[in-house]
Amino acid sequence: MIFSRFSDRKFVQNLKRFPERFRRSLSSYRFYAYLAILGPGIIAANAGNDASGIATYSSVGAGYGYTLLWAFIPMMVSLIVVQEMCVRMGVVTGQGLADLIREQFGVRWTAFVMLALLIANTGVIISEFVGIAQASELFGISRYFTIPITAIAIWWLVVKGSQKRVERVFLAMSLVFFGYVISAFMAKPDWSQVAGEAFEPSFSLDPAYLFTITALIGTTITPFMQVFVQSSVVEKGMDKEDYTLARADVVVGTLFACLIAAFIMICTAATLHQQGIMELDSAATAAEALTPVAGVYAKYLFGIGLFGAAMLAMGVLPLATAYSLSEALGFEKGLSHSFREAPIFLGIFSTLIVVGALFALIPGIPQIKLLLFTQSINGLLLPIILIAIVSLANNNEIMGEYRNSFLFNCLAWLITVVVSSLSLLLIGTTVIDFF
């Protein structure tokens, strides 16, 4: 935690007394201080851009063009607010979210939340493996080769690697998202129209339109992201002195993730929507459809992005589940532990990897129905998680001077009410459509 000392306010004030050359040298240390903290916020936000997320953004771009780009601004603010509270609780209490829920709300509520999280995350993990399969098949590689290899690679990285190594690899995986930026530019969109739609909201009371906005929010703000970011902060050993830099990590990560999601939408809006292709069933279908419009390279870039996104989420989701269940049950957890030291934590992670890989190898697995089911579970769980987060962040006993301010609290509760209402609306619509 040496670097964290450079974020101290008194240090910054005293820094002004030194010669300019010396100040520049120390300013570079502040940059390295951020690099030392860098990780949880960026990884958690980018993991939300998983295979199902890419499919959602692609479908929205194909179906609605640029008209829903404005939604990313309130979604970005909402995600920053929620994840900032989780990071703040992590650095102040030194405990994960499941730990705090068990202590403050009791075993019964914790058991319900953890069961719902386990079911939802297992379904999404399977869909990530299916995303791996679809991405590899875009390049003519069989899923029966790709899925076992990627499953073993992720398992080996987490079980045999250290916390620092796992974090670095996950950060490196995030770089594949730049492929979507390049794809968007290759699609040659009307950038003046893009800017206009992004900053001039358009509303409609059409049920399909409202459902689409709700699906976007549900894809961007998911329960596992909050669990992962808080547990990662705790395992990284951050404390109150690191709060400023940890918060910056959340902001940077959220901005990056939302921009990538917007570029995915721009790419399909500029190509598929313009060509009248308005319905997609997966991200792989979107990649295939790009070929006659934007060229084969855009297809491959889209495929590489899908593969990297699924790989990242395939590692983060089982870890978030293992963190939450281990915390709720009071077992040892952490990437620095061996199987002997943390058998439950690593056992849960390993089991989820095996289950996800095996189910994804089943021919014709109904990915869309699976995602609708897990989306409904997440929609039910999200209001409970958000209420718990805001309540805990307001708890003077555990947060002290770091509890929510009045204005921040008003914004946090507003986001909780709006997102929860839309999530419940999404559940109702999904159930009706399903039957």
Describe the structure in your own words.
This protein is an all-alpha fold and 435 residues long. The protein has one domain: Amino acid/polyamine transporter I, CATH 1.20.1740. It has 20 helices and no strands. The protein starts with 8 loop residues before the first helix and ends with a helix.
Q: What is the name of the CATH class?
A: Mainly Alpha
Strand content: under 5%
Low-confidence stretches: 1-18, 20-29, 31-35
Mean pLDDT: 79
CATH fold description: Amino acid/polyamine transporter I
Strands, helices and their partners?
Blueprint lengths: L8 H7 L4 H18 L2 H8 L3 H14 L7 H22 L3 H9 L1 H32 L4 H18 L2 H12 L3 H9 L4 H9 L7 H14 L2 H13 L7 H31 L9 H12 L1 H34 L13 H18 L6 H27 L2 H4 L6 H29 L1
Helix pairs in contact: 3-9, 3-13, 3-14, 3-16, 4-12, 4-14, 5-13, 5-14, 5-18, 6-7, 6-16, 7-8, 7-15, 7-16, 7-17, 7-18, 8-17, 10-14, 10-16, 12-20, 13-16, 15-16, 16-17, 18-20
Compact summary:
This protein is mainly α.
Considering the chains and any ligands shown, give keywords for the structure.
435 residues, disordered N terminus, single chain, mainly alpha
